[in-house]
């Protein structure tokens, strides 16, 4: 046998037992031979085309096995240098979910504030997230604690780890969609807020909150396209050849270039996803355009969800009044005794708040939380502080024991009123816009110049005195106000007023008993801020009845993530705005309950 004959002989190709088993010959003969079947390709394409950012969810639980499949898909994503920087935090705790929903509510208003008026109104009409409804939250975070240069491929593109996490999210999205699950990627957060909520260490950054559950919508097109917000660009507008080009020419004109912290909340679920879904499901069957009542629709859905559709068509105004020693410093245009007069008129059913409540179909509870005079206002519920009150500038507004008692009494009143339906807050207290401005500075970080308003009718001189008083009060209590979130009751003791403390208790008690709480003007909204600081889940119960004329009110509502139903520049106090809003909500509920239903 010649050497030549030996070379001509063929041996079977040694097929490797690990790795790629194909041969060069096979790949040359059929370059497309790695493809899946046409049916599989068709399915993949329809899953990609049919993926939607889901905002509405059904309450039914997602089986653990399906969640595991979705997470497995995420974990199979490509990653820079095979670094697998993603971590998945599965959130089931309603307290954490509620806090996240509050953050998103706030970010929503912040974002609207950056848009033109028209875009802002349209944005506020959009349903941008389903945090409260979705049974599961999955927060995808990127662990960036290693230096970029230590990861293959990241030295030059240091953000490639974030892109890897985005690939994981898309995999999860597709895997969820294929299984009929819905997923929504919510980025309506200040990232630092989300990091703090979930105790993320330095260097671990959140990519957003994925709402996951069975979808309660099946949109054939992207929601934002359906809402005429935007539409998908033609492919040719986003593809270029060889180099960056000037874009498509239309009609001869070249186009532009292509373009946890610890929660004080117990395990109670304040607003279970199932009831919110039931309320929106019901609204969906109306013979009316979706979300036809606009801003009012949200409030009505919230009320119906809280009451599982059985909220009584009524409610109670809790009107609390107190005197304020700070008024002796010349901060009000009116004398102290007006507070008592108004409470007496309220008991007689003749004060502006009492009449407003009656005409809205609400009952009234009048509370004397310390109006001038030794005797309580006759026929009012008496909750006077038993220790001396202070003027904020030289001494604390209240003794801590009085604050705790007012909170307790308020809780009891709120719990009782909750049975009647809506709970509206009302306050009266000459001088209390100064107190409210000081509290607003502490809770929002605004300056006295930005918070002090004209109250019941101050002139320029009085406004200037109010500013000085608020500045001095804040200077006296600086270290305590800085740490107010650790002990909101101490802030009430330092700078609060008895009626504000009592109403804070009312918010806590009413929310605990499941009722919606309608806030009023500035001093009638701060109890909401303080109650949420004490029990974050309370936020789900709050409705901003109105935005009053007082300066800090807009910022206080923004910090709560609440959009007011009315904005009439009221300055009446007494819960008048809350009653007007309650009347609107009750009417909205009647409309919602009475309108014709369509067949499923
Ligand atoms: O609700 C508001 O935002 C509001 C705005 C201005 C005035 N008020 C009412 O006016 C009183 C406080 O005003 P003042 O000027 O005495 O601080 C108090 O009784 C409030 O109910 C209330
Ligand atoms: C008359 C009057 C009525 C009020 N009600 C609430 N704040 C008030 C302030 C004044 C001055």
From TrEMBL:
Stretches the record annotates as Disordered: 1-32, 249-277
| EC number assigned by the record | 2.4.2.21
Catalytic activity, as annotated: 5,6-dimethylbenzimidazole + nicotinate beta-D-ribonucleotide = alpha-ribazole 5'-phosphate + nicotinate + H(+)
Any GO molecular function: nicotinate-nucleotide-dimethylbenzimidazole phosphoribosyltransferase activity
Q: Name one Pfam family in it.
A: DBI_PRT
Alphabetical list of InterPro entries matching this protein: BluB (IPR012825), Nict_dMeBzImd_PRibTrfase (IPR003200), Nict_dMeBzImd_PRibTrfase_N (IPR023195), Nict_dMeBzImd_PRibTrfase_sf (IPR036087), Nitroreductase (IPR029479), Nitroreductase-like (IPR000415)
Pathway(s) this gene product operates in, as recorded in its UniProt entry = Nucleoside biosynthesis; alpha-ribazole biosynthesis; alpha-ribazole from 5,6-dimethylbenzimidazole: step 1/2
What highest taxon heads this organism's lineage? Bacteria
A biological process term (GO) from this entry? cobalamin biosynthetic process
Q: Where are the transmembrane segments?
A: none
The entry's keywords: Cobalamin biosynthesis, Glycosyltransferase, Transferase
The Nitroreductase domain covers which part of the protein? Answer: 48-214
Q: Which PANTHER family match?
A: NICOTINATE-NUCLEOTIDE--DIMETHYLBENZIMIDAZOLE PHOSPHORIBOSYLTRANSFERASE
UniProt lists the family membership as follows: Belongs to the CobT family.
Recorded protein name is: Nicotinate-nucleotide--dimethylbenzimidazole phosphoribosyltransferase
- Organism annotation: Knoellia sinensis KCTC 19936
């Amino acid at each position: 046998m010649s050497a030549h004959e030996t070379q001509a002989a063929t041996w079977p190709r040694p097929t490797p037992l690990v790795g790629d088993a194909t041969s060069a010959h096979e790949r040359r003969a059929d370059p497309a031979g790695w493809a899946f079947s046409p049916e599989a390709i068709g399915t993949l394409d329809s899953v990609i085309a049919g993926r939607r950012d889901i905002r509405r969810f059904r309450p039914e639980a997602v089986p653990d096995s399906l969640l595991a499949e979705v997470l497995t898909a995420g974990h199979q994503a490509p990653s820079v240098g095979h670094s697998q920087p993603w971590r998945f935090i599965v959130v089931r705790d309603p307290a954490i979910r509620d806090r996240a929903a509050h953050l998103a509510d706030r970010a929503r208003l912040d974002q609207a504030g950056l848009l033109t008026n028209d875009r802002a109104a349209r944005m506020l009409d959009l349903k941008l997230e389903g945090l409260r409804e979705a049974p599961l939250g999955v927060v995808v975070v990127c662990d960036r604690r290693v230096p970029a240069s230590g990861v293959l491929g990241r030295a030059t593109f240091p953000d490639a780890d974030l892109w890897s996490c985005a690939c994981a999210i898309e995999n999860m999205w597709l895997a969820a969609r294929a299984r009929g699950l819905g997923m929504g990627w919510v980025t309506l957060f200040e990232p630092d807020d989300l990091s703090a909520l979930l105790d993320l260490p330095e260097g671990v950054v959140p990519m957003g909150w994925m709402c996951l559950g069975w979808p309660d919508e099946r949109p054939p097109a992207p929601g934002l396209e359906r809402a005429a917000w935007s539409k998908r660009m033609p492919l040719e507008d986003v593809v270029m050849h060889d180099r960056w080009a000037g874009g498509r020419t239309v009609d001869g004109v070249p186009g532009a270039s292509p373009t946890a912290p610890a929660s004080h909340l117990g395990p109670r679920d304040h607003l279970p996803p199932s009831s919110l879904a039931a309320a929106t499901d019901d609204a969906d069957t109306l013979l009316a355009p979706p979300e036809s009542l606009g801003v009012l629709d949200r409030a009505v859905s919230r009320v119906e969800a809280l009451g599982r559709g059985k909220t009584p068509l009524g409610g109670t105004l809790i009107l609390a009044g107190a005197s304020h020693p700070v008024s002796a410093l010349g901060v009000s245009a009116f004398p102290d005794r007006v507070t008592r007069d108004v409470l007496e008129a309220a008991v007689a059913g003749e004060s502006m708040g009492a009449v407003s409540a009656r005409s809205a179909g609400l009952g009234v509870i009048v509370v004397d939380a310390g109006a001038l005079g030794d005797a309580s206002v006759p026929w009012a519920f008496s909750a006077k502080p038993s220790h001396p009150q202070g003027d904020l500038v030289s001494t604390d507004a209240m003794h801590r024991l009085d604050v705790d008692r007012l909170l307790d009494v308020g809780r009891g009143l709120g719990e009782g009123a909750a049975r009647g339906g809506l709970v509206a807050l009302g306050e009266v207290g000459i001088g209390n816009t100064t107190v409210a401005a000081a509290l607003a500075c502490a809770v929002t970080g605004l300056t006295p110049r930005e918070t002090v308003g004209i109250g019941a009718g101050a002139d320029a001189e009085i406004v200037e005195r109010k500013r000085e008083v608020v500045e001095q009060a804040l200077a006296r209590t600086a270290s305590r106000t800085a740490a107010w979130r650790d002990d909101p009751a101490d802030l009430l003791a330092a700078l609060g007023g008895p009626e504000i403390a009592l109403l804070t208790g009312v918010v806590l008690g009413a929310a605990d008993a499941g009722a919606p709480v309608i806030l009023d003007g500035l001093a009638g909204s701060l109890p909401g801020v303080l109650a949420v600081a004490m029990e974050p889940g309370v936020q789900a119960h709050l409705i901003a009845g109105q935005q009053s004329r007082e300066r800090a009110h807009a910022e206080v509502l923004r910090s709560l993530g609440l959009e007011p139903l009315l904005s009439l520049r009221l300055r009446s106090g007494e819960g008048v705005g809350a009653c007007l809003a309650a009347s609107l909500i009750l009417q909205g509920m009647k409309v919602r309950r009475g309108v014709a239903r369509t067949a499923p």
